[in-house]
Design goal:
The protein has about 300 residues and is an alpha+beta fold. Strands 8-7-6-5-9-10 form a 6-stranded mixed sheet, covered by helices on one side.
């Protein structure tokens, strides 16, 4: 009940534009993690992500977090072959010609989270409901409520990409998501999600030698422990190399990749994983990750 009241207070004060982004971040940190953060002397991963938000060089963050604009960045790194084929891009729902879309596709906002529409059969798609869904998500202002200022500089749009075939994937009813954590330029481990349905998914952390580490995680009803471990991907080394190249110059980055039939595909780049309030790793793990991050010198 106390946490719910804090959450409602944050939302109310944010809507009134009373709170600055850094104050929003501190209150949300306390709300999610149950302790007051020290952004001035950051130690664990979450504190260092938030330090970067407000004191670091975030000049590239809006580009990297933009799911549409980042495609050109991926090409600039010589990794254009990793991009999932783009079907279309629209600035509003009204611009979408649903009749010309293929029977299968994935649609999402370029600046959102949790807004992905996976269409496996357009004849069964409720188009009016889809329109409502994206109209709602286009209006969301993540930058204000989550304390992530870089999202305010992203011009919202909707994109559609080819739906990847997961029929040959092992151990998962959804596309296996290989989230490579790169800290101070080095891939440290891979957080893998499987059997995703809405906000529920099975998870496991694997080191770069593909040894599972359940002790690194806090498993919940939303992030369940993977009972069936994912086999080592055929393209693991390529994934790690791509993640390192895509995160160049960033102290902290999470690079999401897929592997389908022996080919690697790019998902997205996340600079502020879980907005900087990650609670699905243990405190020791978050501190260990923080120790791997060498922050730039802050000039006041």
């Amino acid at each position: 009940m106390k946490k719910k009241l804090i959450f409602c207070l944050i939302r109310f004060l944010t809507r009134l534009h009373i709170l600055t982004p850094i104050r929003v971040a501190k209150l949300r940190f306390f709300y999610v993690l149950g302790r007051w953060p020290d952004f001035g002397n950051p130690k664990d991963l979450n504190e260092k992500i938030n330090w970067m938000k407000f004191y670091g060089d975030t000049s590239m963050w809006s580009l990297l977090a933009d799911k549409y604009a980042v495609r050109e960045y991926v090409r600039s790194k010589g990794l254009g072959d990793l991009l999932i084929p783009l079907i279309g891009k629209w600035d509003s729902v009204e611009e979408i010609d649903w009749d010309t879309l293929p029977n299968q596709f994935v649609m999402k906002c370029n600046n959102g989270t949790g807004d992905v529409l996976i269409c496996k059969d357009k004849t069964k798609l409720d188009i009016e409901k889809a329109k409502e869904h994206f109209n709602k998500h286009l209006k969301k202002k993540l930058s204000i409520f989550t304390g992530e200022p870089h999202y305010a500089k992203i011009k919202p749009c909707i994109i559609a990409e080819q739906l990847l075939d997961i029929s040959t994937q092992p151990c998962s009813t959804s596309l296996i998501d290989y989230k490579v954590w790169v800290l101070s330029g080095k891939p440290i481990f891979i957080w893998v999600t499987t059997n995703r349905k809405g906000y529920f998914t099975d998870v496991m952390s694997y080191d770069t030698d593909w040894k599972p580490h359940p002790e690194w995680s806090v498993f919940t009803e939303h992030y369940r422990r993977q009972e069936k471990l994912v086999p080592r991907p055929r393209c693991l080394e390529q994934m790690l190399e791509a993640a390192q190249r895509l995160s160049e110059g960033q102290p902290i980055a999470r690079i999401d990749l897929y592997e389908v039939d022996g080919k690697v595909y790019f998902g997205e780049i996340t600079m502020t994983s879980n907005a900087g309030y990650t609670d699905y790793f243990t405190k020791d793990m978050l501190r260990w990750m923080g120790d791997k991050v060498q922050l730039p010198i802050h000039k006041s």
